[in-house]
Amino acid sequence: MNIAAKRWLPHAVAAVCLLVLLYPLAWLLATSLKPADEVVTSLDLWPSHLEWSNYTTALDGVSGISVTQLLGNTLLIAVGAVVGNVLSCSLAAYAFARLRFRMSKVMFAFMVATLMLPHHVVLIPQYIIFNRLGMVDTYWPLILPKFLATEAFFVFLIVQFMRGLPRELEESARIEGCGAFRTYWSITLPLTRPALITTAIFTFIWTWNDFFTQMIYLFAPEKFTITLALRSFVDQSSTSAYGPMFAMSVISVLPIVLFFFVFQRYLVQGMATSGLKG
């Protein structure tokens, strides 16, 4: 009995922890189907009857903008951020990990130190720059910085992976006449696939869930993302439409959940190999 208990105890603890972690999602899904009067008055997880009209109201969107357009706007920003981070951060990481240039260690240390810099410190200078460039109320402030390797966390992640790759492959490529960029594109980049996938997954999730930055730069309702639409939905409907508000929350969370389940194998692989390399 003691052997059996020791064998099943970790599984039981893991199952309990899983239930605790999944409860907020279950509560969100159940609340999205509750009538308006039960959202704030009832503590029961399951509603007395299913209010499917909440989703009908949520699918109508806000300010005349459909949910399809809101999701499309969010997807456009997320995909642009993913492409920008993967390309720029991998280029910067290759320079730090493989190229030798003056003050490379100092610059790398300075780059890592920016991880401790709060985002709000640089927000005002960035806003002034984009405002003078006429890019406020466009998607450029949300996408363009990603092409400039501004995410030090991903640069550091890819650097640690690249440092563990064998240099003999790059040396062979140089003997064959490949330059630095050709070696990066044809040799190093394919071998860095696990770290690049990890960068893409985290960038997509963080960009999709971003609210503060999008609220600063986007004003026109037709350019709103799904997270901004949630705020507008509350402002528009006040406190009388909790059900549709939670229904729209479910719609906004669903792509992230599906995305995570599809790519979770690559996420675990990328984090594990990045930790072993370097």
Automatic annotation (TrEMBL):
Please give the chief subcellular localization of this protein: membrane
- Identify the species of origin: Streptomyces aureus
User: Keywords for this entry?
Assistant: Cell membrane, Membrane, Transmembrane, Transmembrane helix, Transport
The ABC transmembrane type-1 domain is annotated at: 71-263
Give the range the annotation lists for the signal sequence.
Answer: none
The transmembrane residues are 12-30, 75-96, 108-130, 142-162, 183-208, 241-263
Could you identify this protein by its name? Carbohydrate ABC transporter permease
Membrane association type: Multi-pass membrane protein
Recorded hits in Pfam families, A to Z, give: BPD_transp_1 (PF00528)
Which family is annotated?
Belongs to the binding-protein-dependent transport system permease family.
Places the protein is found: Cell membrane
PROSITE patterns given in the database record: ABC_TM1
The domain of life is Bacteria
**What PANTHER family has UniProt attached to this entry?**
ABC TRANSPORTER PERMEASE PROTEIN MG189-RELATED-RELATED (PTHR43744), ABC TRANSPORTER PERMEASE PROTEIN YESQ-RELATED (PTHR43744:SF6)
